[in-house]
Amino acid sequence: MRLDGISGDILVAAKRVVLCQVVLAVGVVLFEVIFGNKVDMESAALGVVIAMLPPLIGFMYASLKVQKNPNYSLRDLMQMSRVVKIIYTFVMFILAFRFFGLDNPVILEAYVVTMIGYFFAPFIIGSHTSEYA
């Protein structure tokens, strides 16, 4: 299946996910600013970064793959993007828990709340019609 133009669709989806995640991330960090201390605020910020950065890397990697080879299999593209996201997420969690003296439950809380935006973005923001959908 030829995927001409799908690179733009991937970037539109990435923008929608990021927008939804930013709204939830601001809410989590503001909650910790108001009700938490400095360590909780830093922990929430790190959890937000861990939630947002790997999917963005996966989206960019998938978009670059399609630009280089429009005949790339959509199934392989999705699998590759998923693996990239999982690997970067694990590495970032290992680094955060090992080398930062922050509150681990707050990191996980911020991660989970921000990731909700990743999964619910298509329902909250609306659908983007595409010839590939």
Outline of the structure:
The chain has 133 residues and is mainly alpha-helical.
What are the key terms here?
133 residues; mainly alpha; 4 helices
Tell me which oligomeric state these chains represent.
single chain
Mean pLDDT: 81
Unreliably modeled segments: none
Number of strands: 0
Shape: elongated
Q: Could you tell me the strand content as a percent range?
A: under 5%
SSE pattern? HHHH
Report on this structure.
It is built from four helices and no strands. It has helices spanning 6-35, 38-68, 74-99, 104-125. The protein is elongated. The mean pLDDT is 81. This is ATP synthase subunit I.
Write the layout of secondary structure elements.
Blueprint: H1 6-35, H2 38-68, H3 74-99, H4 104-125
Helix pairs in contact: 1-2, 1-4, 2-3, 2-4
